Amino acid sequence: MASTSDIRNGLCITFNGAPFQIIEFLHVKPGKGPAFVRTKMKNLETGKVLDNTFPSGSKIDEIRIENRTYQYLYSDPEGFHFMNMEDFNQIQIMEELINAPKLLKEGMECQVLFHADEERPMICEIPPKVTLEITYTEPGIKGDTATNATKPATVETGAEVRVPLFINEGDKIVIDSATGSYKERAK
């Protein structure tokens, strides 16, 4: 058992029977009344963010979380299949636990957050920037770069992304996995 003095960014705790990760915290010592800790926590199962205030000195239940590197293999109706890069064990992760499943490409390395005591995956995060090839888009017109106009494009994983008018089929682009938006042309 830990106390509120052990709270730090990234700490994983059990709160109301669910695993949460501390995103932000602030120790507050008002002029009048007892001190407290104001936190912003993310539910590791649902992804929802919750604001909560802990009285200073209260006990919190800390949980062990491990971050492991897995390689994406394939998906089927049962889920997405990944392989551990160290011992080659395979696991299956449901789509809801992956931050951007439409951008997953075979062979991509992802970080999987595990509940160490229960040995179960909690979240799968793909890299922050993903480079993919355009498989279909309407042809660009030369000189159409002065405006911020965009057009739909389909990438090799099947996801649809809005890209500038000068991007053509066969071009490789960098996509921000957090927002699913176009960042730049791949070099």
Write out key terms for the chains shown:
187 residues; SH3 type barrels; 6-stranded antiparallel beta sheet; OB fold (Dihydrolipoamide Acetyltransferase, E2P)
Which SSEs are present, and which pair or pack?
Elements: E1 2-3, E2 12-15, E3 18-28, E4 36-43, E5 49-55, E6 59-62, E7 65-76, E8 79-84, E9 90-93, E10 109-115, E11 120-125, E12 129-137, E13 150-155, E14 160-164, E15 172-176, E16 181-185
Antiparallel strand pairs: 1-6, 2-3, 2-6, 3-4, 4-5, 7-8, 7-10, 8-9, 10-11, 12-13, 12-15, 13-14, 15-16
Strand content: over 45%
N-to-C series of helices and strands: EEEEEEEEEEEEEEEE
| Coarse structural class | mainly beta
Fraction of residues in H or I helices? under 10%
Mean pLDDT: 89
First-to-last CA distance? 50 Å
CATH class category of the largest domain: Mainly Beta
Which CATH architecture of the largest domain would you pick?
Roll
According to CATH, what is the topology of the largest domain?
Answer: SH3 type barrels
Instruction: Say how many strands there are.
Output: 16
Q: How many domains, in number, for the residues?
A: 3
- SS field, number of helical segments: 0
Radius of gyration: 21 Å
